[in-house]
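Tutorial handout. Part one gives the primary structure; part two gives the three-dimensional structure as C-alpha cells.
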Amino acid sequence: MVPRVAKAGRSFKGAAQYYLHDRGADTSDRVTFVEILNVPTRDPHRATAHMIDTATHADMLKRKAGLKGGRKLEKPVYSYSLSWHPSEKPSQEEQIAAAKDTLKVLGLEDHQALIVAHSDRDHPHVHIIVNRVHPETGRAMVMSNDQLKLSAWAEDYERKHGHILCPQRVANNDNRRQRFVKHDAQTRRQHFEWKRAASDELWSAYRKEKEIAHSAYKPRFQTLWDQRTARIATDKARLKADYKDKWRELYKQQRKALHAYDNRLTERLKYAARQTHSSRMRAFLSAVVSDGVMRAQFIQDQQRERGSLSAQQLHDINAASRQATDQWVNDRDHLRDSITDQNKDRLEDYKERSDDIWKTPAGSASEAQKRAREAAERKLKSDAQRRKRKRIRGPSP
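Part two.
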C-alpha cells in the first residue's frame, strides 16, 4: 500500500477534468468506478459543482454556523492516491473502504469527496479528491502531518492484511516514534547529486507527458472546426431547399405576369397607372401602343423582385453561419479553459513531487532513490577520473 499526497489545488473543475477522464482527452476509459461522499447527488460532475459552491460560500457557511470569518482559502482542493501492490486484487468495496479509512484518519470523513478508481497502471489504485472546506461549518481543514498519518495508516493496513510489502516504511515509522531520523552517512554532495538526478528524471517525464497531451489537443480543436463547417454546409443546404419552392413560385408568377402584360391592354394600363405622376401620361400612351421601353421597365421590376428574394436568402444563410460560428467560438473557448486547467494541475502535481525530492533529508531514500544515488555516485567517480586523465595528458596543443 502506497499513499501519495498531491499538491493542494485551486480548481475543482480542473481536478475533475483530470481524474474523471483519460489523460488529455474527454473519454473516461481508465475510470473503473466513482464513489461520491457527503454530496446529495450520484453524478460526479454535479458533485464537483457542489464542491465549488461550498468552497465559494465558505464565509457564508461560517456566519451561519456562528463562526468568525477569515482569509479566503486559496487552495481548497486536497487530493491523494492509494496504490496497491500489483499482486493484490482488492475489490471495489475494499478500495472504497480503504479510502474511507484514510479520510477518517485525516479528519475528513464529513467533507465532500470523490473516490475515483483508475485502471491505467499495472497496479490497482484510487484517487481521492476532497473539499477542505466543511460543507456545514465552512471551516477549512488544516492538513498538517498528513503524509505521516497516511504512512502510519498504510503500515497498519499491511499488517492487518498479513503481509508487509514495504519494510523500509516500518523502519522509518519506528524511527519517527523514537524521535530519531535514520542517517546512512551520505555526503552532502552525494545527496545533492541524487536529488538533481531524480529531479531531472521527473521533469523529463513531465515534458514527455506534456508533449503527449499537447499532441492530442490539435485534433480536438480540428474536430470542433469540422463540426462548424459541417453545420454551415447542412444549414446552407436546408435553406437552399426551403427557398427552392419560393423561387419556383416567384418565377411562375413572373412568367404569368409578363404573359398577361404582353397580351392584355388592361394589364399594361394597370402597370402604367402605378408609375409616377410625371411619367404617367407617357406610360398610358406606351401601354396603348405596347411600347418596348415600358416592357423593359416591367422586366427590370421583376429582376429587382428576384434580387430582393436572393438578398433575403443570402441574409438567412449568413445568419445561420454566424450562429454556427458563435457555437464554435463557445466550444473552442470552453476547450481552451479545460486544457488550461489540466495543464495547471499537471504542473502543480509535478512541482509538488519535485519539492518532495528536494526536501528529502539525507539518509531517508527508498530503494529506488538509493539506486538513483548510486548512479549519481558513479557519475561523480567517472567525472573525477576523466578530470584526472586530463591533468595527466596536459593541455591540448
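Part three, for discussion. The beta strands are 2-5, 31-37, 77-83, 113-118, 125-131. The radius of gyration is 37 Å.
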